[in-house]
Design brief:
This protein has 13 helices and 11 strands. It is α+β, with helices and mostly antiparallel strands and 379 residues long. The structure holds 2-acetamido-2-deoxy-1-O-phosphono-alpha-D-glucopyranose and magnesium ion.
């Protein structure tokens, strides 16, 4: 597929294109036109997102709403959220094309946000800002009417369903894969089954109404928030593909999973993988400082449980993809067991988070009380 032709279908004459390799779902490029203006071009993974029209409508609704909120607060609507570009027919915010084999490909373009960066790992100072960025994002969406949103991936953070899917993939793998392929995964399989109770923690609280359903981001990996290069403050939350109703705990938990891991998400040296307490504290402070005014006591009480749930869940997802033959997540082709390595790292982190639960719980509740008190003073 020719990047330059695709950009032309958005009315943009591009002269350079560079791939950005951080996401593991979509394909992303920075492209530049003749005048030097930059854009983001993305091929949407339509194996993962089955209803691209609905997905893009979600992103339009959310970014329009955010732009109103940002303008109301006196912010910069061009830099503090994403700006979609319509296709050259000006009828949709994406472009669809069929390849020679008849497969459909979907592309979208955004304005490029200059002088801002994302980080796969970052210092405590940046984690504090990232926490504020995701917290503020969620607060800005507090009044957003979710009835127009589709579920871009149904049951995305339904950990119980993720566990069921894992068990059926395991059954299938026993029938279809050779014994060695499964034996390699055995320690992970054992871990997943032994800790199955974790899958109920947030789902029970949501389903019984103990915690509220909110509109949340659902993919708060550290590199999904941009920091301004001059101020080093959070500027713009990106990757809006999974904005759907869910729990605030999904966003907090996934951010700790990704930002406060001392190692890499797919670290092969498992000694590197543990909770970095300083990073945990910095992110928690940033996030809670923004969210305390709207966070309920029940949500606050569950903060420390959420990284355990979200890390376990991603471990299950990587392991399931390994058992399915690596169809969902993009893998490093030089690492045939990449998904299994990812699962091992996630379960190693899960175990360390379980070990640190009391500490995390004490810290999170102190911070919540501190900021809750502050916000009630300001009322
Ligand atoms: C995927 O594309 P990216 O890297 O932002 C995934 C997340 C995982 C993450 C793990 C739609 O996000 O759920 O937490 O990889 N997104 C989807 O790296 O499945
Ligand atoms: Mg994503």
């Amino acid at each position: 597929m020719n990047t330059f032709n695709i950009c032309a279908n958005f009315g943009i004459e591009t002269i350079t294109a560079h791939e950005i390799k951080t996401g593991i779902i979509n394909n992303t490029f920075v492209v530049t036109d003749k005048s030097g203006k930059k854009y983001i071009l993305q091929e949407i993974n339509s194996n993962v997102f089955k209803d691209v029209d609905g997905l893009m409508n979600n992103i339009e609704l959310v970014t329009e709403y955010l732009k109103d909120q940002i303008a109301r607060d006196g912010g910069d609507t061009q830099r503090e959220t994403l700006t979609l570009i319509k296709n050259a027919n000006n009828d949709r915010p994406y472009y669809k094309v069929r390849d020679d084999n008849g497969k459909e490909h979907y592309f979208r373009m955004y304005d490029y946000i200059a002088n801002a960066s994302t980080y796969d790992e970052a210092s405590e100072k940046y984690l504090f800002e990232a926490g504020k960025g995701f917290g503020k994002f969620q607060r800005q969406l507090d009044g957003f009417d979710a009835s127009g949103l589709i579920e871009s991936i149904p049951d995305f953070h339904n950990t119980r369903k993720r566990l069921e899917t894992f068990i059926s993939s395991l059954d299938k793998a026993y029938k279809e894969k050779d014994a060695e392929y499964i034996a390699d995964a055995y320690p992970c399989i054992k871990y997943a089954l032994k800790h199955a109770d974790i899958a109920n923690v947030i789902m029970d609280a949501l389903q019984t109404g103990r915690i509220p359903t909110r509109v949340v981001h659902n993919d708060t990996k550290l590199n999904n928030v941009m920091l301004d290069n001059d101020t080093n403050k959070a500027l713009c939350v990106i990757d809006l593909d999974t904005i759907m109703p869910g729990s605030m705990l999904f966003d907090y938990g996934d951010a700790i999973r990704s930002g406060a891991n001392a190692g890499l998400e797919d670290d092969v040296n498992l000694k590197n993988v543990y909770l970095d307490k300083n990073k945990f504290e910095a992110y928690t402070r940033g996030f809670v400082s923004e969210m305390a005014p709207i966070m309920t006591d029940s949500e606050a009480k569950m903060l420390a449980q959420s990284p355990i749930v979200l890390t376990y869940e991603l471990g299950l997802r990587f392991l399931t993809d390994y058992l399915d033959g690596n169809k969902y997540f993009k893998c490093d082709l030089t690492r045939p067991k990449h998904n299994l390595e990812r699962a091992k790292a996630q379960f190693t982190l899960t175990q360390d988070l379980i070990k640190n639960y009391s500490y995390m719980n004490k810290f999170a509740s102190e911070i919540f009380n501190e900021y809750k008190l502050d916000s009630s003073k300001q009322k």
